[in-house]
């Protein structure tokens, strides 16, 4: 497998502030790769370093084997799509798309031909002669995509490109973006703080926090097997309980749950003592064989799901999710219920 972008021990400081603390990542060619993390974790900084808009303080970034610092900006096989589209307001849609090709020195008829093909790809051929102001936000974002793809970059950097769109459009664009990446075979590096966006589109996700990469893996890897507390909490919804850990061996731990029941579950390599146990709310059922006893405080109707907010005997809050279609009876506030942890519900985390 070819590596498109190789990031090796990259540190970036702004004055006395360190935005990236030694980040290493290997991004495969033809992949949809997402940098995911909360605001300020360094995602955009890393993207700007890959684009060559900023220089690394130390470490190295290679694009298809070449050190980026040695590549002239116009020879870097990279293009960027920004959150605010950055279209030229006085140019028509097709001229916007053809702009980068003109810069590359392509002749007029080849330019219009290529730009026309790009507009077809993003389903905007009918609007080629309009000005950006005459388009909706979603259409403008598609023009920005077509413009960035026109010069056939090997790597496309996308900085929160969907954040200005409303929810329905964002959901539709996720599918389109993934399709576009698959059709073109271009490596997409996508920045977002939205975990659902990351989970739905990405082949690989790097979860970042405070200038460090916490975990790299597929959507399933990071959801099912988060390596630490930060990742478990950031990706999806989870219950985090402080439990006593008695034994850890060969990736499994034996712990005592609140209420006294023992549990053996997959575990990060931790030493015995107190650690956080993550329990996913959708992997818990109400009924016999209970691992935990809880008192129902509130039932929240979420359409396809019901969220049941409960409290355990030791006072910790505990949430479960039931599928609305599958439910037989709804627990009532004040009721004491038994909670059964399904296989794969619990995982012991490193701090
Ligand atoms: N030019 C700069 N000078 C000083 N500090 C900067 C500069 N650029 C970024 N930073 C700081 O570096 C940190 C990381 O910023 P960055 O924009 O990479 O975060 P982010 O994860 O992309 O966040 P967001 O999702 O809010 O855009 C922030 O604390 C930011 O204030």
UniProtKB/TrEMBL annotation:
Q: Which UniProt keywords are given for this protein, alphabetically ordered?
A: ATP-binding, Cell membrane, Membrane, Nucleotide-binding, Translocase, Transport
List each copy of the ABC transporter domain by range. 5-235
- BP GO annotations: putrescine transport
The domain of life for this entry's organism is Bacteria
Gene3D superfamilies attached to this UniProt entry: 2.40.50.100, Nucleic acid-binding proteins (2.40.50.140), P-loop containing nucleotide triphosphate hydrolases (3.40.50.300)
Return the SMART domains for the record: AAA
Entry-linked Pfam families: ABC_tran (PF00005), TOBE_2 (PF08402)
What EC number(s) does this enzyme carry? 7.6.2.11
Record-linked InterPro entries: AAA+_ATPase, ABC_SmlMolc_Importer, ABC_transporter-like_ATP-bd, ABC_transporter-like_CS, Mo/tungstate-bd_C_term_dom, NA-bd_OB-fold, P-loop_NTPase, PotA-like
This enzyme catalyses:
ATP + H2O + polyamine-[polyamine-binding protein]Side 1 = ADP + phosphate + polyamineSide 2 + [polyamine-binding protein]Side 1
Give the GO cellular component terms, alphabetically. ATP-binding cassette (ABC) transporter complex
Which Gene Ontology molecular-function terms are recorded? ABC-type polyamine transporter activity; ATP binding; ATP hydrolysis activity
* NCBIfam families, sorted: potA (TIGR01187)
Function text: Part of the ABC transporter complex PotABCD involved in spermidine/putrescine import. Responsible for energy coupling to the transport system.
Instruction: State the family named in the UniProt similarity comment for this chain.
Output: Belongs to the ABC transporter superfamily. Spermidine/putrescine importer (TC 3.A.1.11.1) family.
Query: What's the subunit arrangement here?
Result: The complex is composed of two ATP-binding proteins (PotA), two transmembrane proteins (PotB and PotC) and a solute-binding protein (PotD).
In its UniProt entry, what is this protein called? Spermidine/putrescine import ATP-binding protein PotA
Q: Which organism is it from?
A: Tabrizicola piscis
Q: Source organism lineage?
A: Bacteria, Pseudomonadati, Pseudomonadota, Alphaproteobacteria, Rhodobacterales
